[in-house]
Amino acid sequence: MKTPITDLSDLKKLLPHREPMMMVDSLLDFSEGRATVGFTIVKENIFVANNEFSETGLIEHMAQAAALYTGFKNLSNLQPVKEGFIASIKTLKIQHLPEVNSVLKTEVAIVNELMHLTTVNLSIFKDNIKIANADMNLVLKE
């Protein structure tokens, strides 16, 4: 597979999430330790209230962006795509809640990978302005 990936059926090969819990719609770029993930917020999204994408939605989007990175890496290395979980959120800063029709670009930067635990730094941008960032620990299920 090559980036960018925007086809929903191809994205579903890279992560276990399905509608209505899909919070990513493109893998724009990938390199070892880094990825850029896209997501357009639609009014029907389960995390939209009062025309805004909620804090919970932003956190879930970040976790899925990291999962998309891992899924692409595993599939590229002929390994199975694995389900993962947020083990901890070390830091989280949300400067702005994006509104419906916003296009998000999220930068995934792997800080450390050790067996089934990954530490990742995530930054969400809307119109090239950082609106949220977090450091998370993610655990892959066997």
Keywords:
44% strand; alpha+beta; two-stranded antiparallel ribbon; 142 residues; 6-stranded antiparallel beta sheet; Thiol Ester Dehydrase, Chain A; 19% helix
Commentary on this structure:
The protein has helices at residues 8-12, 55-76; strands at residues 26-31, 34-40, 48-49, 52-53, 84-94, 103-114, 117-126, 129-140. The chain has two helices and eight strands, in the order H-E-E-E-E-H-E-E-E-E. It has a single domain (8-140), classed as Hotdog Thioesterase (Thiol Ester Dehydrase, Chain A, Roll), CATH 3.10.129.10. The relative contact order is 0.20. The protein has a six-stranded antiparallel sheet. The model has no long low-confidence stretch (mean pLDDT 95). It is of the alpha+beta class and 142 residues long.
Main β sheet profile: 6 strands, antiparallel
H/E element sequence: HEEEEHEEEE
Q: Please give the count of helices.
A: 2
Mean pLDDT: 95
Task: Report the sheet-strand fraction.
Answer: 35-45%
CATH architecture: Roll
Name the CATH superfamily assignment.
Answer: Hotdog Thioesterase
Weakly predicted, low-confidence segments: none
Number of strands: 8
Rg: 14 Å
Structural class of the helix and strand makeup? alpha+beta
**What is the name of the CATH class?**
Alpha Beta
Physical arrangement of strands within the biggest beta sheet:
1-2-6-7-8-5
CATH topology: Thiol Ester Dehydrase, Chain A
Protein name: Hotdog family 3-hydroxylacyl-ACP dehydratase
InterPro entries: ApeP-like_dehydratase, HotDog_dom_sf
